[in-house]
From TrEMBL:
<dbReference type="InterPro" id="IPR001986">
    <property type="entry name" value="Enolpyruvate_Tfrase_dom"/>
</dbReference>
<feature type="binding site">
    <location>
        <position position="337"/>
    </location>
    <ligand>
        <name>3-phosphoshikimate</name>
    </ligand>
</feature>
<protein>
    <recommendedName>
        <fullName>3-phosphoshikimate 1-carboxyvinyltransferase</fullName>
        <ecNumber>2.5.1.19</ecNumber>
    </recommendedName>
</protein>
<feature type="binding site">
    <location>
        <position position="341"/>
    </location>
    <ligand>
        <name>phosphoenolpyruvate</name>
    </ligand>
</feature>
<feature type="active site" description="Proton acceptor">
    <location>
        <position position="310"/>
    </location>
</feature>
<feature type="binding site">
    <location>
        <position position="384"/>
    </location>
    <ligand>
        <name>phosphoenolpyruvate</name>
    </ligand>
</feature>
<dbReference type="InterPro" id="IPR006264">
    <property type="entry name" value="EPSP_synthase"/>
</dbReference>
<feature type="binding site">
    <location>
        <position position="166"/>
    </location>
    <ligand>
        <name>3-phosphoshikimate</name>
    </ligand>
</feature>
<feature type="domain" description="Enolpyruvate transferase">
    <location>
        <begin position="7"/>
        <end position="419"/>
    </location>
</feature>
<feature type="binding site">
    <location>
        <position position="310"/>
    </location>
    <ligand>
        <name>3-phosphoshikimate</name>
    </ligand>
</feature>
<feature type="binding site">
    <location>
        <position position="119"/>
    </location>
    <ligand>
        <name>phosphoenolpyruvate</name>
    </ligand>
</feature>
<keyword id="KW-0057">Aromatic amino acid biosynthesis</keyword>
<dbReference type="Pfam" id="PF00275">
    <property type="entry name" value="EPSP_synthase"/>
</dbReference>
<keyword id="KW-0963">Cytoplasm</keyword>
<dbReference type="GO" id="GO:0009073">
    <property type="term" value="P:aromatic amino acid family biosynthetic process"/>
</dbReference>
<keyword id="KW-0028">Amino-acid biosynthesis</keyword>
<dbReference type="InterPro" id="IPR013792">
    <property type="entry name" value="RNA3'P_cycl/enolpyr_Trfase_a/b"/>
</dbReference>
């Protein structure tokens, strides 16, 4: 699908979409449990992949209306899947359920689409081997397809922290089912650390004890997953909120108001601090869960995305309309997402008249040397690239045509509907 946007002002009220990160973890936690109801889930391409995986391991996920999932779990004893688990484009699904496969008594095969089959899984496979299981890449390159044979029996493992925090989250979620629990020592500094905090928060809500240690994390053994009152409520997603907040900052006429924005462990809430540092007009009522952002003159800043890789595309767009340079640092791990987001944003914004300087670990956007112009751009099959380019299009001179608009289904299926309702001029075509 192609989406063509014209310069627009936006205003009005939208609702924050549910968190993809929390939804993934909640569906799997409910699968680890006997049963649970997941309220307000994000039902997207990625989270459907996690639901299918839970079903492959012996659970059942029933969508009951638009606002909840009824999950019958496998009660801590995953079955050996009858078929290959297809994780589609969801890296979170693959990493979380690779650890689930290591608990099952038998062999599981996991794969995904072309993009997912290019993403690194090696450290997690090595950790499973070190714990007494067997795990390997069929191509011998640490990438899917993966073959995992369990059950693992060890209770201590070390793993690098600078490739993906999802390895740690996966092991923590599975570790509570092991008889002796699991201690995870970090070999390097943990990147995207707030995502592990999200995992710890979900574990606590499902009655599973896990904690930080001096050198990493630990989870007690022999535990059972059980949501308080049998229910879990998914909070709003700050990664998705970032696009609505950025739209308000660059094109807000009066203000863009977003409901359902409550404090949580999500690292991507840092987008609000970044906006304020750039001079945006931001008001957040945490108790009422209401965020308001309106257009203002922005100034370039230096922002580290060590813990918030998903924010790089949004911040790059803000830098394109700001005065001075916006220097996005600690960004090397952002290259290993659905696409290399550092290069993708440099190249696609370049088509729109934005000058950037790309280095291995950073992206600098030169706002003073840029003038946003409408252009034909490519979303690179990456939902976050598509949505950030759509925000840039609101301020570009002339029409912007984005290829691959359908990929917003991964995390924010209603994104273009919401943007249209806020006043954006856009058309969709095959």
């Amino acid at each position: 699908m192609h989406v063509t946007l014209s310069p627009s002002s936006v205003r009005g009220t939208a609702r924050a979409p549910p968190s993809k990160s929390y939804t993934h973890r909640a569906i799997l936690a409910a699968g680890y449990a006997d049963e649970a109801t997941v309220h307000d889930p994000l039902w997207s391409a990625d989270t459907k992949a996690t639901a299918r995986a839970v079903e492959a391991f012996g659970g059942d996920v029933l969508r009951a209306g638009d606002d909840r999932l009824e999950v019958s779990g496998f009660d801590g004893r995953p079955a050996v899947p009858e078929n290959v688990i297809d994780c589609a484009n969801s890296g979170t699904t693959m990493r979380l359920v690779t650890a689930t496969a290591a608990v099952a008594d038998g062999t599981t095969v996991l794969t995904g689409d072309e993009s997912l089959r290019s993403r690194p899984q090696g450290p997690l496979l090595e950790a499973i081997d070190d714990l007494g299981g067997q795990a390997f890449s069929t191509r011998g390159n640490g990438q899917a397809p993966l073959v995992v044979t369990g059950p693992v029996s060890g209770n201590r493992v070390s793993i690098p922290g600078d490739v993906s925090s999802q390895y740690v989250s996966a092991l923590l979620m599975a570790g509570g089912l092991l008889e002796d629990g699991l201690e995870i020592a970090l070999e390097t500094e943990l990147k995207s650390a707030p995502y592990v905090d999200v995992t710890l928060e979900v574990l606590e809500d499902f009655g599973v004890a896990a904690r930080h240690t001096d050198d990493g994390f630990a989870v007690d053994g022999g535990q059972s997953y059980q949501a308080a009152g049998g229910s879990y409520h998914v909070p709003g997603d700050f990664s998705s909120i970032s696009y609505l907040a950025a739209a308000g900052a660059v094109a807000g006429d009066e203000s863009v108001r977003v409901r359902g924005v409550y404090p949580s462990a999500q690292g991507d809430s840092a987008i609000l601090e970044a906006l304020e540092c750039m001079g945006a007009d931001v008001a957040w009522d945490r108790e009422e869960g209401v965020l308001e952002v309106s257009r203002s003159d922005l100034e370039g800043v230096e922002v580290s995305v060590a813990d918030t890789p998903d924010l790089l595309p949004t911040i790059a767009v803000l830098g394109a309309v700001a005065e001075g340079d916006t220097h996005i640092t600690n960004a090397e791990h952002v290259r290993y997402k659905e696409t290399d987001r550092v290069s993708a944003m440099a190249e696609e914004l370049g088509k729109m008249g934005v000058r950037t300087t790309e280095e291995r670990d950073s992206l600098t956007v030169h706002g003073d040397d840029s003038s946003l112009e409408g252009a034909a751009v490519d979303g690179r099959g990456d939902h976050r690239i598509v949505m950030s380019l759509a925000v840039a299009a609101l301020q570009a001179e002339g029409e912007t045509r984005i290829a691959g608009g359908e990929h917003v289904d991964v995390s924010f299926p209603s994104f273009f509907d919401v943007l249209y309702d806020l006043g954006a001029s856009l058309e969709r075509s095959a």
